[in-house]
Write a structure and sequence with these properties.
Length: about 475
């Protein structure tokens, strides 16, 4: 294995700036690695030839002040990329070539990065295992036939296998943090409104956020910096100052108070996860942090509320795929039949399930009983967090109730699949920032993550706490290249 692909994003940036190696050399190594790693199925569309061409012409002299100069960079296929196929993992967008670029990806290219390709994901970001993609399952580099998590499964897989030095995903209910936990990588969901949603294929608009997925906390700070910022094209984007997350990054967290919510001790959670959580508390205590028990009493309603709100918004967002405006179109004897055939053939089972649930909970007879009730529960969940943040600076929980599982294991049982999101969805419902940090292994030798949840727009505190954890945990990512 060439050494370049093992470097962190920060090391690559420094190396290119100091001319230790060129953008072209770096890009070549990543492209070679990607070509040899097709078995993982982490890419839907590659941009290798273009990336090589662009990197060849890349001049570091005129790009010294960029944050990601000449860095090859693959992104989840949910971000619209101008002139390059964007599928959202769906057959219905199998031939969709956007005429515009998402704001978040544009920010990355503006900082000097080069598009390496589009990464596989669950269809319309609906899933927790990357088994709903029209383009097939993605393998987890940590072990054969194991899921990488979802929906940003291709992103997590590509990152953990060193196919891209860093990447971005989207998180509606955990899709950045859960795959990060399953692959031993770092993933951060920013505060709702921190990063623009413009040009990202919509799943559930009041929950969706783009965020960084990286090998280290330092890389996460750097990438968050690059993608954050106000965007007038997104009415929910917030015009708030973006501090320099990298230069403010410090492991000095002495005196901060961390809350431990008792409701996150769920039944049947493997003992290793509980142990890991305790280890996390001990490490933070060692860093001078005060640990405090807290209660988030409405936690048990988060999952049911999420699985009403998210499908409701999805059913409305996905109404636009009718065979007229975008992508795939099926034949039909008349307009209605064309719509029906297009949607029947274009969407997969999980997406159809969500559309059915969504239209049901929004229908006039059930709106008050389900949708409105779920919105009220959402407020209560947010209030729980607000109350806790009066006395703590951040909250520590496990990222997931289990480690990666075998492909097919949960596919036929949507409820057990949805339970994977139990620790991540409350954060989206409340619009808060949260990060998953690789923290250890279970007895099957599979990676596990710890989650830190922060106050709105206080990504810096959870990054700092993550750095303190990272330094003490000394997590070693285990890539044995079984797929080669
Ligand atoms: N697994 C969750 C779902 O299927 C979350 C997905 C996401 O965050 N995009 O809805």
């Amino acid at each position: 294995m060439s050494e370049i692909i093992k470097l962190t994003l920060n090391e690559l940036v420094a190396g290119i700036k100091k001319k230790k190696f060129s953008s072209h050399e770096v890009t070549k190594d990543f492209v070679n690695r990607c070509i040899k790693s097709k078995k993982l199925n982490s890419f839907i569309t590659d941009n290798f030839d273009n990336a090589l061409k662009i990197s060849k012409k890349f001049e570091i002299k005129s790009n010294q002040n960029k944050q990601l100069p000449g860095i090859p960079f693959a992104v989840k296929d949910l971000f619209c990329t101008k002139g390059i196929k964007t599928t959202a993992g769906s057959k219905i967008l199998n031939n969709f070539i956007p005429t515009y670029e998402s704001t978040v990806t544009q920010n990355i290219w503006n900082e000097g990065a080069i598009l390496l390709g589009k990464l596989n994901c669950d269809e319309f970001a609906m899933g927790s295992s990357n088994e709903t993609s029209f383009f097939g399952n993605v393998e987890n580099p940590v072990g054969k036939k194991l899921v990488p998590g979802g929906s940003s499964g291709g992103s997590a897989s590509a990152l953990a296998a060193n196919l891209t030095p860093a990447t971005i995903g989207t998180d509606t209910g955990g899709s950045i943090r859960q795959p990060a936990s399953f692959t031993g990588t770092v993933g951060l969901k920013p505060t709702y409104g921190r990063c623009s949603r413009w040009g990202i294929v919509a799943f559930a608009s009041s929950l969706d956020q783009a965020g960084p997925m990286t090998k280290t906390v330092e890389d996460c700070a750097l990438l968050l910096q690059a993608i954050s910022g106000y965007d007038p094209n997104d009415s929910t984007s917030i015009d708030i100052r973006v501090d320099n997350f990298s230069s403010n990054l410090t492991e000095k967290v002495k005196g901060l108070t961390i809350g431990i919510p008792k409701e996150y001790r769920v039944e049947n959670m493997p003992v290793e996860i509980d142990k890991l959580w305790k280890k996390g508390m001990d490490f933070l205590k060692d860093a001078g942090v005060i640990i405090k028990d807290i209660s988030l009493p409405h936690t048990k309603y988060a999952l049911p509320a999420y699985y009403i709100v998210a499908p409701a918004e999805a059913s409305s967002n996905l109404a636009r795929y009718d065979g007229v405006k975008y992508g795939h179109r099926s034949e039909g004897k008349n307009l209605i039949e064309m719509y029906e055939n297009t949607r029947s053939e274009g969407f997969g089972d999980e997406v159809k399930r969500r559309i059915l649930i969504g239209t049901y909970v929004l229908s006039s007879g059930y709106y008050d009983a389900y949708y409105l009730k779920a919105q009220k529960v959402r407020q209560l969940i947010k209030q729980d967090f607000d109350n806790s943040f009066n006395s703590v600076d951040a909250i520590l929980t496990p990222s997931t109730p289990n480690s990666s599982f075998k492909m097919g294991e949960k596919k036929g049982d949507p409820v057990s699949m949805y339970l994977n999101d139990i620790f991540t969805v409350p954060v989206n419902l409340a619009g808060l920032p949260a990060i998953s940090v690789p923290s250890g292994y279970d007895k099957k030798k599979l990676p596990l993550g710890l989650q830190l949840i922060g106050k709105p727009f206080d990504e810096q505190t959870i990054l700092n706490l993550s750095l303190a954890l990272q330094k003490r945990i000394n997590f070693k990512r285990n890539v044995n290249n079984w797929w080669k």
